[in-house]
Amino acid sequence: MSIKFVKKTILLNQSFVNRARRIFDVKTEKDAVNKALEMVVEEDEIISIHKEIGGLGKIERIFI
Length: 64
Description:
By secondary structure, the protein is an all-alpha fold. The chain has two helices and no strands. It has helices at residues 14-24, 29-52.
């Protein structure tokens, strides 16, 4: 799978960006935002699959 990057100009909450950089231990704001977006997409996929199997089992959130 190839990854396509696009340039965006958006307003972000700087305190969230700073916190994400610390949480993910990355050097750049770009890396922090990309990692956070990646985690949101992965979590959505996990929740969708969980719903497909009828919600059996328990999902524990490790990031708040």
